[in-house]
Amino acid sequence: MFRIHAYALCILAGIIAATVMTSRRLSNRGAEPGVVLDIILWAVPLGIVGARAYHVLTHPGDYFFAGANPWEVFAIWNGGNAIFGALIGGAVGAYIGCRISGVKFWSFADALAPGMLIAQAMGRLGNWFNTELFGLPTTLPWGLEVPSTNAAFPVGLPAGTLFHPTFLYEMIWNTIGVILILVIERRITLRWGRAFGVYLVWYGLGRTFFESIRIDPSEIFFGIRTNVWAAIIAVVLGIILIVVQGRRHPGLEVSVYRQGREWKRPVPEVESEEFDTDFEDHGDEAVEPAASGDVAATSTSNPRLQA
């Protein structure tokens, strides 16, 4: 039986919203309208592959054990995707798409930055439908009520326990990040990958906290969850990107295309207008202006004009 999951719909809606926003931002900077589609046709599939691969590799105990079904590794419809894997796979796909279309990779990344946060915020709404990825118990009024029958419900806690809705926190954090990037762009120039650097720093900082209070199973390295390490790496890479690109490219970005691949905006054809140079038509004959001598003769031959 074919089933449509609410989580999948949220992710799809996020991808569409990010695509529309990125397309508008890139077109406003001189790119051909619709060129984003040529890029996301590579970025989205590879992003999905990366998301799944990262999840499987960071949760090996769920897929590699005696008697495990090896095909479960590919059963993405059963859940199990990781945003950090999507970033890696999507970056590879975006690079390929940019090379083919002639768009600079960092120009695309800058245009994508706020849209990426929108997509992630909308995707997190799917966690609410699935009642998953929640945090530690809490007594706060906005705590999430999780049924005790939920497979992720911690053993030993009484029914009715409330939990931190970490996905809601991330939705709010990402929305603020969109506003932050747009405001910063109004004051300083964020080009050559620096807008994407701000995205990495902002998202990484938030994710570091949200991951630290989540209670879903995860691989631990040196006492820290895998995704916390990934978030820290994102922050470091974002800072490096902002600093290095700011020094390498202190000037304005002339074009979002690589040299020799520029898109030339078509010049609309202007229809020539024919202007009527004939004299005003007064019946069958055109009236020609009288010469100055004729005017004088008329005035002297008319007695009333002489009076």
UniProtKB/TrEMBL annotation:
Example of a GO cellular component annotation carried by this entry: plasma membrane
Biased composition (Polar residues): 297-307
EC top class named in words: transferase
Residues the record lists as binding a 1,2-diacyl-sn-glycero-3-phospho-(1'-sn-glycerol): 124
Membrane topology designation: Multi-pass membrane protein
InterPro entries, A to Z: Lgt
Keywords: Cell membrane, Membrane, Transferase, Transmembrane, Transmembrane helix
Keyword Metal-binding: no
General function of this protein: Catalyzes the transfer of the diacylglyceryl group from phosphatidylglycerol to the sulfhydryl group of the N-terminal cysteine of a prolipoprotein, the first step in the formation of mature lipoproteins.
Family statement drawn from the similarity comment of this UniProt entry: Belongs to the Lgt family.
Name assigned to this protein: Phosphatidylglycerol--prolipoprotein diacylglyceryl transferase
Gene: lgt
